[in-house]
Design a protein that fits this description.
This protein is mainly β and 572 residues long. Helices cover 6% and strands 38% of the residues. The chain has 4 domains: 98 residues, no CATH class; 123 residues, no CATH class; 56 residues, no CATH class; 182 residues, no CATH class. It starts with 7 loop residues before the first strand and ends in a 7-residue tail after the last strand.
């Protein structure tokens, strides 16, 4: 549109050019290109006599100079302010001898995209360019959604080297960002578009109430995602099934994707790694530090560097050596090789709806992932998890049912014709003859589909099948969870007369109890790595207040999750 002269004034004594029309939310705000603004000024400057509130005519000093239609300089002391700049577009305005500059921004995108600007380490709070939930000064024919100006130099100093980052993070839509690594005079291009995100269709108020997700570890964390016995390194470990709260009841990896988008959406009030969620972008650079001063750099640590055009700020997320310090005590280190890392939008990566393609350095609890997921470690290696499968026994009564899931050879039955637990699944290697045993070694390799922690049964020399919780296993060794609240003297094998304990001789039976507990909920489950199948026996017994006849059934763990419901036949 052409400039609306009635919306502008010029004061001769101060040389201040002011916009006095309606604000963006008013009934009739007006906008003009920088060349229209210049033509208006020059049109007044050649008048014989000034009139009204436009105090400019041929007798006054020249107010402006055109370099191109997109670069206008106010000269001889004429000035504008931020309010005026909001109503000009399609180029740059320079004044005060070049000490003050507004540069033009043009976004090529869909008409309703809402964009935010990050400048000098902060999201600009007043996004006036998103006028009436649409872009300001669009040009639909050219595919332009927004045209506006941003101040990039003040007081003779460039603001953060004139660097800008444009983002669009409307919840329910795809996220994007675009960087300008130093604005030039005239128009500077952003290319921000968004569209419906088919994997983000939960309403925002629902996601805001979710409380099941926990960021268990922040900083340099070791996780063996691919279960090959060697840890990879990540800057964070998210727990998707932490049971930290109640919503969502059965969280999925796509629920986490939506939650991560909510944390970092436009207008977010959340804090993430020491930053406001809207400002967090993931890891952007990896920096080698040398010449370290004493002290510790604690993640997340605010950092700064350089001066003038080289000045910058950032956030330390993952020190892998704790010998350097940051902003908290002003100690320094020298930056060496800098590697720029590709960021994901949103920060967590992409979702297929049922799997996550994770961003650089973002880790998860191993058992929250499936073989369809992919993560990228800090070495920039794409890691594929094994196939974690969860089997669930449902239909239980909490506090009454005892649940046992054991191995089955696929054919053996007991005297009643029911499937019989394969109690010689493994065999003890070496005698157990002392109390408080901390590890149990078997003669065979522990099956690869054994849960990472759980329970084994070890037959002692009196025939008792000891309930032994383990915290981890490796090769042929189970590490006993000696701090488990229910272990009692189950791991005492000293066999002292009168002690009630017995030794266990090498070769005695050992078997894995995949579930072996008193139910604490209406269902109990176990998770393990499974690419083939394993035959199982399920036993549920309740002889308490609402007794049932024993439920016993064959079952199996395959490459897909499975649920079996206990049949509750009353025994009252």
């Amino acid at each position: 549109m052409a400039i609306v002269a009635a919306d502008w004034t010029i004061t001769r004594s101060t040389k201040v050019i002011a916009y006095i029309g309606d604000d963006h939310s008013g009934s009739a705000p007006s906008y003009a290109t920088v060349i229209e603004f210049h033509r208006w000024l020059q049109g007044l400057a050649d008048d014989a006599v000034a009139s009204g509130d436009d105090e400019l005519d041929i007798t006054n000093i020249d107010p402006s100079r055109r370099s191109t239609d997109n670069i206008i300089t106010l000269i001889n002391g004429y000035t504008i302010g931020d309010n005026e700049a909001e109503h000009l577009y399609d180029g740059s305005i320079i004044y005060d001898g070049g000490d003050e500059i507004y540069d033009g921004i043009v976004n090529f995108g869909n008409s309703d995209v809402q964009i935010q600007i990050i400048q000098n380490g902060a999201v600009l709070t007043d996004d006036w360019w998103n006028y009436d939930s649409a872009g300001l000064n669009p040009n639909a024919t050219a595919g332009i959604s927004h045209r506006f100006m941003i101040k990039t130099r003040t007081g003779g100093t460039d603001i953060d080297g004139r660097r800008l980052i444009g983002t669009c993070r409307r919840f329910g839509f795809t996220y994007a960002e675009f960087s300008i690594n130093g604005t030039a005079r005239g128009n500077n291009v952003l290319a921000l578009t968004d569209s419906d995100d088919l994997n983000n269709n939960t309403i925002v108020s629902t996601v805001a109430a979710w409380d099941q997700f926990e960021n268990d570890s922040v900083g340099y964390v070791d996780i063996d995602v691919d279960n090959n016995g060697t840890d990879e390194h990540y800057y964070s470990q998210w727990d998707i099934t932490a049971d930290a709260g109640t919503d969502p009841a059965s969280p999925t990896i796509n629920d986490f994707y939506e939650y991560a988008k909510w944390l970092t959406m436009d207008g977010s009030a959340q804090n993430l790694y020491g930053l406001n969620g809207e400002l967090f972008r993931g890891i952007t650079h990896q920096v080698v530090i040398t010449d370290l001063d004493s002290g510790d750099w604690n993640q997340p640590e605010a950092l700064s560097w350089g001066s003038g055009v080289t000045a910058g700020t950032g956030q330390l997320l993952i020190p892998n050596a704790n010998t350097i310090t940051g902003a908290t005590n002003s100690a320094t280190g020298t930056a060496g090789t800098v590697t720029e890392r590709t960021i994901s939008k949103p920060f967590c990566g992409a979702s297929t709806g049922s799997a996550i393609i994770g961003s650089y350095g973002l880790g998860f609890v191993e058992t929250d992932l499936t073989s369809s997921d992919k993560v990228t470690d800090l070495g920039n290696n794409v890691i594929t998890p094994p196939n974690y499968v969860t089997n669930t026994v449902a239909g239980l009564v909490s506090g009454e049912d005892r649940v046992l899931v054991g191995p089955w050879d696929g054919s053996s039955t007991d005297v009643n014709g029911d499937p019989a637990i394969d109690k010689d699944q493994l065999s003890l290697s070496g005698n157990l003859t002392s109390e408080n045993i901390s590890s149990i070694v078997v003669s065979e390799a522990i099956p690869s589909d054994t849960p990472s922690s759980g329970v084994i049964r070890v037959t002692d020399d009196n025939g008792y099948e000891r309930w032994i919780p383990y915290s981890s296993w490796d090769a042929s060794t189970f590490m006993v969870n000696t701090s488990h609240g229910d272990i009692g003297d189950n791991n005492d094998f000293n066999g002292v007369d009168g002690s009630g304990t017995y030794q266990a001789t090498s070769g005695n039976d050992v078997w894995i109890a995949y579930i072996d507990k008193l139910a604490t909920a209406t269902s109990e489950s176990f998770t393990s790595v499974q690419s083939g199948s394993r035959s199982l026996v399920v036993i549920v017994r309740d002889g308490a207040g609402t007794p049932i006849k024993q439920f016993i059934s064959s079952w199996s763990q395959t490459a897909s999750a499975s649920t079996i419901n206990a049949i509750r036949t009353t025994d009252a």
